[in-house]
């Protein structure tokens, strides 16, 4: 007889769990919810019963239940038991908010990761040239202006099966991740990674693995180890990685593609810095075009308020996102698309982006020359950010704040705990580079404050 609240058989659940850590149990149960082994409303076995069958402590199972509850996948109803529920996820982007939670009134705020407004191209002349007529005849029009699509395709790092334009790289990551990632899916990201991406993957209930970077990109051995476990998606930033400033080499792209060739993982590349990066753009799409989705943002090069990014690559994923978006905004403003199209062919704009690129490189190398001389450990060979090791994160932030300088704490960027670090947007330092670099070096070496001391 089927009792209304009979728990799901403990053995069925235990059989699906190979990794008996709290994280492994949570991920496995998450996968069972996703693939339908456990249905919404099913009652889970008690912590004690499952712990006994798995041969782990009840605390381990209880921790797993807590993380599933945190993403809204299960619901503890006191004595009635614990039940599978429709996942909703946490509502606060914890990491993202921490990056920007400083006092917010620094004389020089290097915490933001944003481009220097003074180095963005002037939109005025371009806007004046854009047609004043409505560019939309039907809500079901193709979402990209045909001329813009032709331009983007001619400049894409591999022939995309499908291409569209959305409202910035973060919008693209949201749409692609929501298409691809299901509760409990194993997903690889860079360690350290972009905090909103980590928040988003938490929201989706992914089991996130951070693969460390070296100066050529994501490390191959660690990626291969993750792939051996079965990975649904890999998220990476091919150039001027935020926060480390690493730009992937062609050699590394090829090695990573080889490591991923036997898996069926979707590769999501976030070229968030676009043409303000000095390094050349590589893409795993050159090797795995049917499984790569490449995103290019125009925020850093042409202005964050254009709110535009292009997404192109694997047909299933990109057309899935296009179709899903029809039930939301449908398309990104064609007026803004027309502005971007004008800018891509407008000589003064092209010149302004090139000037910004070399100015960011100049600022970065003036700072790193001082950091090198002071023996500070950092990465940052491209883009607007540096990732700088510090003796103690909090003390370093306080030392900088005392000098009127803001920087981003490193912790929100980390998948797993790592050496204390700060992200410093050195691209925002217009002048006094050596003096400010010296302040950064002093902060890096600051010894930890005693408990209770501010
Ligand atoms: C790695 C990364 N991805 C995405 C974004 C968001 O870009 P967009 O302004 O295009 O949404 C940023 C912004 O700084 C970023 O650093």
Can you give me a brief rundown of this structure?
This protein has 454 residues and is of the alpha/beta class. The protein has helices at 10-15, 22-34, 47-54, 58-70, 94-99, 124-129, 146-154, 169-180, 195-203, 220-229, 250-260, 299-302, 315-326, 334-344, 347-373, 393-402, 433-444; strands at 74-76, 82-84, 108-110, 162-166, 186-191, 207-214, 217-218, 233-236, 266-271, 292-297, 309-313, 378-379, 386-389, 405-409, 421-424.
Give descriptors for this structure.
binds pyridoxal-5'-phosphate, Arc Repressor Mutant, subunit A, 15 strands, globular, 17 helices, 454 residues, alpha/beta, Aspartate Aminotransferase, domain 2
Please provide a written account of the structure:
The protein has 454 residues and is α/β, with parallel strands linked by helices. The chain folds into 3 domains: 10-84, Arc Repressor Mutant, subunit A; 94-118 and 349-444, Alpha-Beta Complex (Aspartate Aminotransferase, domain 1); 129-344, Aspartate Aminotransferase, domain 2, CATH 3.40.640.10. The protein is 39% helix and 15% strand. It has 17 helices and 15 strands. The chain has helices spanning 10-15, 22-34, 47-54, 58-70, 94-99, 124-129, 146-154, 169-180, 195-203, 220-229, 250-260, 299-302, 315-326, 334-344, 347-373, 393-402, 433-444; strands spanning 74-76, 82-84, 108-110, 162-166, 186-191, 207-214, 217-218, 233-236, 266-271, 292-297, 309-313, 378-379, 386-389, 405-409, 421-424. The protein has an 8-stranded mixed sheet with strand order 4-11-10-9-8-5-6-7, with helices on both faces. A 5-stranded mixed sheet has the order 3-14-15-13-12, with helices on one face. Helix 8 (169-180) crosses helix 13 (315-326) and helix 10 packs parallel to helix 11 (250-260). The longest helix is centred in the C-terminal third of the chain and has 27 residues, at 347-373. The protein is globular and about 70 Å long. The relative contact order is 0.13. Residues 447-454 have low confidence and may be disordered.
